[in-house]
Amino acid sequence: MSVLQAADGALPDARVILDTLAADFALDVGPARVVRRTLLDTFDHRLCAAGLTLTQHGEPSGEQLVLRRAGRPVTCAAVGGARWPALAAALPSGPLRDAVGAASGIRALMVVGDERRRQRRVDLRDQDAKIVARVDVDVPTAGSGGAVQVRVHALTGYSRQARRVTALVTGLGFRPVTGEQCAPVTRGTSAAEPIGRDAPAVLLLAGVLGGFVTAMRENLPGVLDDVDTEFLHDVRVAVRRTRSTLKLARPALPETMRTRWEPAFKWLGDLTTPVRDLDVYLLDLPTMAQWLVAADAADLTHLDEHLRRSRAVQRRTLVRGLRSARFERLLEQWDQTLAELAQSCAARPTAGELSDASIGRAHRKVVRAGAAITVDSPAQSLHTLRKRCKELRYALEVFAPVTDKPARKAALADLKGLQDVLGRFQDCEVQREALREFAHEMMTDGTPAQAVLAMGELIGHLDTEQQQARERFDGAFAQFTRASSARRLRRLAGAR
Amino acid sequence: MKVLATYNIKGGVGKTSTAVNLAHLSAREGRRTLVWDLDPQGAATFIFRVRPRVKGGGHALVSRERPLSAALKATDFENLDLLPADFSYRNMDLDLDDTKRRTKQLDRLLDSVADDYDVVFLDCPPSVSLVSENVLHAADTLLVPLIPATLSLRTFDQLTQFVADAPGKSPQVVAFFSMADRRKRLHREVIEAMPRNGARVAETVVPALSIIEQMAERRAPVTAFAPTSRAAQCYEQLWAEVG
Questions:
Q1: What CATH number was assigned to the domain covering residues A199-349?
Q2: Do A130 and B50 touch (CB under 8 A)?
Q3: What is the CA radius of gyration of chain A?
Q4: Complex confidence, ipTM
Q5: Is the dihedral of CA A471, A476, A481, A484 positive or negative?
Q6: Chain A interface mutation, best of B73, B219, B225, highest count of A Cβ atoms under 10 Å
Q7: Number of domains composing chain B
Q8: Would you kindly state where each structural domain of chain A is located, as residue ranges?
Q9: pLDDT of A455-482, one tens digit each?
Q10: What is the pTM of this model?
Q11: Disruptive mutation site among B1, B49, B113 for chain A (greatest number of A CBs within 10 Å)
């Protein structure tokens, strides 16, 4: 489809356009209709990233979803009474839902753009009365702004006719506009301006921490409205990164950061933990159901219901906390603190010095904690190592502006292998314990025995998986501490 | 991509009407649908108001001189494209005979558009030929319209034997009664006495209705110009069974 637009301010009469086209084609002019065009995407624009555009067209005859790839309609589906935000699973079954669901994953579709236009669909026919091109003459409704547009829909096998239509409309002073583009994805984690190694560390820290708080604010409405599970996840990531940064950068930060702000963000992290944990169990439940051999997947229905009830209870606490004066004060005063930090005149340490020291320290801690792990070490030791690995990863990410990009990417890749093994080990540990706890709670509610037996089977599966992860640990740690990886990290920490 | 072929050794049994209407219903549900009019008579092409011409003819397609995608034409219906007939298709047997793996050429040609369509209908000419053997390899389902008459059943037996004897992959054969007239005793008896012999026979019976004949005059699927008619309802019911 090509879109041609009238020059700014020009409002050509639709009649002129139709008369021009009628010179070459027989026209079937549809009735004028007001079309509400709602652009849908996930909060993080996953459809846009996948090259897809999903629009909902509201017309008197009904609502329709149209999915386009590179501007060309690929599929459409009628949709009645749709309410956004909603997961792709709520769409009518068919190719559109399949394509959208593959791109959106667990994120909900929400309205990211909305406009109303008065539109006339015109079918252009040849001498056999075959439609050889379609045109939408598109006029913005009063007050909604925008220019008159002519959308030329080229039909497969009739590109010559579409080119002719474009030439005729261009002759009226219309000019092509580039394809409908979705809003660019903005991430709040990068500093506004590039920061060099010699810049004061506090400047880099203020920018990075400001990015994290922006991410928290952007995701907060989605958490409060319970749009999808990823809003809370992203808030938690921003909180965790904030806490790690405060800890990593203690030497460069005022004492109040440690005494006041570290506990403040710990409170925020703790507030969000119960709902997130329950989200993870609910998201994992379909996978867990596939593990069952003796029990039936339907036996997990009671667990599903228990998790949902618990989540509803925990969400009330979370929402209360996020709407509290304490949280409002936290955000407000944190903004002031970051503004003061950016204005502070502490020239030392420099960003480079702090980066070298933080990455070096975090790396040494990982190596020390990992080397101390033996076959007899308790699960807690591996959990501690996992936390050290996260700190190293955050250090590499926070100081990204002042470190070498290829070396940093390679170091993160080295670290990922170890983190994956530790993550699976710890997840199994936590999930196993949680399932035991849920089973106790459910038994007091009179849950049938088969539900608890099914959970026992899951615990057995988690135990096996945890052992497998433990067996992979030595190899993963050896891979991480191999000479080339260690050399790379030492160089990132300033060693020459 | 699912491939359905409307096929019968006999002509005038409702192959094109079935392909055109079911394809329209498939597209209406949002599936990207293609009809390949393999019959040089070009009835489906005519109904969709497309000119029965493929640049380079069937030879250019079979010999890969021109890609299949270059010959595609949009119909007047959203999500529904047509690969038109060309009078040169009458020589397609000879073109196919000149190729290696001569019975699998249509399958390979359709592979080139597999990402672009969810459903493909092959509207086949009435014959037993190399084109038919290619259709057997390419199709997942062979839709066989049968006029309820004794000779039709005999032809159906020949057809099922032809499918059973074909080497390699065989499509599922689904027969259904077409152009049926319940006022005729013979039609009623044949429908009731149809021997299944392992072949699937759809429940839907498409009656002989003048509105179906009007498709050639209106140059559109009956499901488009008379969507609430009995004929359209029959095709919807058939599509629900085989789609």
A1: 1.40.20.10
A2: yes
A3: 29
A4: 0.85
A5: positive
A6: B73
A7: 1
A8: 2-177, 199-349, 351-496
A9: 999 999 999 999 999 999 999 999 999 9
A10: 0.59
A11: B49
